[in-house]
Amino acid sequence: AVPQRIVASSEVERSYIMIKPDGVQRGLVGEIISRFEKKGFLLKGLKLFQCPKDLAQEHYKDLKDKPFFPKLIDYITSGPVVCMAWEGAGVVASARKLIGATNPLQAEPGTIRGDLAVQTGRNVVHGSDSPDNGKREIELWFKEGELCQWESVQAPWLIE
Ligand code: UDP
Ligand code: MG
């Protein structure tokens, strides 16, 4: 039998990963999801979603005084995004590495932004910057019941 790892969800690290409207428009949804899947994190929530302005403003509230804030809100609400909750020990920092630097021209080749984007204002994907923000953002973007409780059959082959 597959051993069941019983872990209260509050102890499990989660990152909120979002494919931004440019990633959706450019047909990069499969490519981006695939990178997190192949790495070995567990997908707990996934939806295509048209983000309202107030939610975008709340999500990026720490940046509200930056000069680029209005353009950022226009960008994030300009078309559907793909909202994801990914789970696993170390997922927040690891996802940031997979995503690469904020400016895609500075992002290393092999990262999502390094391979697939050229401008900070069109950098195709978001990833939470701390486990606390991972929790906050997943609660902000997903409603009760939208996350799935499941175990991957790969778990014993990923975690010893
Ligand atoms: N952003 C921008 N211009 C800037 C800095 C940031 O348009 O000079 C946008 C960009 O889409 C970035 C988002 O604001 O991804 C959030 O900025 P943050 O510094 O949190 O970067 P991230 O965590 O996404 O790498
Ligand atoms: Mg950030």
The biggest beta sheet is recorded as: 4 strands, antiparallel
Structural class: alpha+beta
pLDDT averaged residue by residue: 95
The main sheet orders its strands as 2-3-1-4
**Shape assignment:** globular
Helix content: 25-40%
Number of E-state strands: 4
Distance between the termini: 15 Å
Radius of gyration from CA coordinates = 16 Å
Structure, explained:
The chain has 160 residues and is an alpha+beta fold. Helices cover 38% and strands 15% of the residues. It has 8 helices and 4 strands. It has helices at residues 21-25, 29-39, 53-59, 69-76, 91-99, 112-116, 131-141, 155-158, and strands at residues 14-19, 42-49, 81-87, 125-127. It has a 4-stranded antiparallel beta sheet with strand order 2-3-1-4. The longest helix has 11 residues, at 29-39. The radius of gyration is 16 Å and the shape is globular. Mean pLDDT is 95; it is low at 2-6. Uridine-5'-diphosphate is lined by residues 63, 68, 72, 102, 120-121, 123, 126, 129. Residues 12-149 form the Nucleoside diphosphate kinase-like domain. Belongs to the NDK family. Its cofactor is Mg(2+). Keywords: ATP-binding, Kinase, Nucleotide-binding, Transferase. The active site is at residue 126.
